[in-house]
Each structure stands twice: as C-alpha cells, then as structure tokens.
From TrEMBL:
Residues 382-411 have a biased composition (Low complexity). This is PASTA domain-containing protein. Residues 379-418 are annotated as: Disordered. Gene3D superfamilies: 3.30.10.20. Pfam families: PASTA (PF03793). CDD domains: PASTA_pknB (cd06577). Residues 287-373 form the PASTA domain. It comes from Vagococcus luciliae.
C-alpha cells in the first residue's frame, strides 16, 4: 500500500514542475528578447551620434593639457577661456569646452587683432557674448578697446598712404576712404567707455589727417569753381596753400592773367572815356576862355577897363604905401594889408591868379589884385593904422558885374590850357 501512494505523489509533483518550467522559459525568452531590442536601439543611436561628429569624441589628457596651457602672450580673456575649459573637464567630466577652445580662442584673437570688418564688429560682439559664457559686459568693453586700438592705426596708415600718392583727380575716390575713417572715429567717439581710445595718438593723428584732406578738397573745389567761371572774376585767385591746390597753379595763373588783361582793358576804356569827357569839357571851357591879362603895374582905372573888355571881375585889396605924405619912409613893421582907399590911380602890385602861371581864364571869373594905397599923413596914418589893425582886412570888389572870387573856374581854365 505504501508503495502505491508514493507513486501517486511523484506523479503530481512532476506535473506541477512541468507547468512551472514552461512559464519560466517563456519569461526568460521574453526578457532576453526585450534586452536584445533595447541594446540594438542604443547601439543604433550611439552609432548615429558618433557618425554625426566629424572628429573623434575621445580626447586624451595630454591633448587637454596642451590646449589649456597658459602662454605668456595670452591676454586676460584668453586665460579665462582656457581656465574655464579646463575646470569644466576636471570637475564636471565635460570635455566639450575643451573641444571648442581653439575655435573660441580664434574668434577672440580675430577681434583683439582688429581682423574683423568694421561693419561686422557689433554683430560679432553679440555673437561672442551669446556663445561664450564667460564673456560679460565689461569684457565686451575691453574687447572693443583692443579692437579699436588695433584697427585704427591700420586705417590711418592706409589713408595716409593713399593721400600721399593721390592727385587732385583722385580726390573723389579718396574721399570714400576718408569717409570710412571718419565713420570709425565717430563710432569710437560716441561709444561709451572709449576714452582711452580717443586719447591715443593714432586717434589724434587720424583727426589731423582728415582735417588736412578736407582742406585740400575744399581749396581744390574753390579753385575749380573760380577757374570755371573765370569770366566773372572780380579779384585774383589767391596763391594755394594745400597739395591739391598747388597742382592747380597753372589754371590759377591762366585765370589771373585773364582777369589782369580784362582789368587793364576796362581801365583803358575808363581812362579813354574820361579823356574824351575831359576833351569835351576843355573844348567847351576853351570856347568860354580868354587870355589871362597881366594887370601888375597898371592903375586900377586901366585894369577895370581891361577887365570890362574881357568880361572878367576884379577884387581889390589895399596895401600900405612905402612913404608918408611928407616923404618919410613908413617902417616895414607897420606896413600890411588894409582896405583899399578907392583911388583909381593906385597901381597894382600883385594879382591872383597870375599871368605867369595861367595862360587862360574863363569869362566871368574874378581876379584878385593888391594895390598900393596913396600916401597918408603920418599922424592920420597912425590912427588909421591902429584902426586897420583891428579890422579883418576887408577887400572891396569893383567890377562891371559884382561877384565873388571863383578860383575853381580859374583852375579849370588852367587844366584846359594844359
């Protein structure tokens, strides 16, 4: 009995075991299948990731050391860039910054050495700050200073060489290069924090060079405008002071010679017209003129007769006689001009204008004469002399027609006679 029971028990266990082993087999197969698929997927992704990178991802410690090694010539920003890449590899086990180190260093050096185009510098600065995490605002300002200090001397030397070789015909083309330097100077001057750059000698020399070029262009343009309108010149073109102006000296001389000829021609015409006018005037005066009479030595009566015939006026002034009535000589110190005593027998001592000086006189003019008054009694003379000394030497005009002296008419007659 016991034997049979054992057989039954073993059969039941065997059935259960068979059922359990089938489930495990199915589980194990499924598990390995999932692991295989996952491994295949990860391998596929890794394969594509590796293929997307042109260079090998692995980098040796030696390469890292060489890339991040600080050189004596490295600037503050380059050193900071290398230190940041090395610390990222050392503490974060990330070699990405080390791999990008050469590229970023090249970008910084390109700016520092002024190799970036002036038109691209602002965009380059924005790009640097965006992609290099160590770049701050103060670093951007430092980069701008280093860039301007590098690029400005080259721009100055370039324009200076162009200006030295340029002629006045190259002025328009050269002005474009000058405008580039001017734009750069304005950009530096108006940018905040660039005081160290504006204090540089290269900045001051650039300003002076632009002033000199501007003076050359302005003077050359002024000379061209004056030469082109040479017919309208009213004064000579001054001697040039600039390089471009001196190149136009030949044109200046031609324009000035034309102006001189024109001025001489106009002056000749003016003088010729004036001469014609004078000739006409003189001709008219000659027709109205008479010979200048010589009245000296004549009596007043004789002179009046002569003057009436010539249609001239006579103005008479007396002068103290040399003797008194008693025959005594009158002292010279009391002889002087005095009123005419109205004696027509008095002789004329002097006339003005003189016949020795002028040959003709216009009709109607007045001749002034001085006559010697008749002798007076000594006593009477003294009283009369006293009274005459207080008078204003009044002259009496006697003529057929009373008029005032007209010296200018006499002078005109003289000019016509000449």
């Amino acid at each position: 009995m016991k034997k049979k029971k054992r057989v039954r028990i073993s059969k039941t266990k065997n059935k259960k075991y068979k059922k359990l082993s089938k489930s495990w087999k199915l589980f194990i197969v499924s598990f390995f299948l999932i692991i295989s698929l996952a491994s295949a997927y990860l391998f596929f992704k890794a394969y594509h990731y590796i293929n997307d990178i042109p260079e090998a991802q692995n980098i040796t410690q030696e390469e890292i050391y060489l890339l991040t090694k600080i050189e004596k010539t490295d600037t503050r920003l380059i050193r900071a860039l290398k230190n940041n890449a090395f610390e990222s590899w050392l503490y974060e086990a990330n070699d990405e910054k080390v791999k990008q180190l050469s590229k970023n260093e090249a970008l910084l050096l390109e700016v520092m050495k002024g190799k970036t185009a002036i038109s691209d510098i602002d965009a380059t600065m924005v790009n640097l700050k965006k992609h290099i995490d160590i770049i701050e605002d103060e670093d951007i300002e430092e980069l701008y200073i280093m860039y301007y200090k590098s690029v400005l001397p080259r721009q100055y030397d370039k324009l200076r060489d162009i200006f030295q070789e340029a002629t006045v015909t190259d002025a328009e083309e050269m002005s474009k290069d000058a405008q580039e330097l001017l734009d750069l100077l304005n950009k530096i001057y108006n940018q905040e924090g660039m005081l160290t750059v504006t204090s540089e000698q290269s900045f001051k020399k650039s300003v002076s060079l632009l002033d000199e070029i501007n003076d050359n262009i302005i003077e050359a343009n002024n000379i061209k405008n004056q030469v082109y309108s040479y017919r309208n010149l009213v004064e000579a073109i001054p001697a040039p002071n600039t390089k471009f102006g001196m190149e136009l000296s030949e044109y200046i001389d031609s324009a000035n010679n034309y102006l001189q000829s024109k001025t001489m021609e106009e002056e000749f015409k003016r003088k010729y017209s004036e001469l014609q006018s004078n000739l006409e005037t003189n001709e008219k005066l000659i027709k109205k003129s008479v010979d200048m009479p010589d009245l000296v030595g004549m009596t007043v009566r004789e002179a009046k007769k002569e003057m009436n015939q010539l249609n001239l006026n006579l103005s008479i002034q007396g002068y103290t006689n040399t003797t008194y009535k008693n025959g005594e000589t009158v002292p010279d110190d009391i002889r002087d001009m005095e009123s005419w005593d109205r004696d027509e027998k008095d002789k004329i001592l002097k006339q003005e204008p003189s016949s020795q000086t002028y040959k003709f006189i216009v009709k109607g003019s007045t001749i002034q004469v001085v006559v010697e008054n008749q002798p007076i009694a000594k006593k009477a003379f003294s009283s009369e002399s006293s009274s005459s000394s207080t008078s204003s030497s009044t002259s009496t005009s006697i003529s057929s027609t009373t008029s005032e002296t007209t010296s200018p008419s006499t002078e005109e007659t003289t000019e016509s006679s000449d």
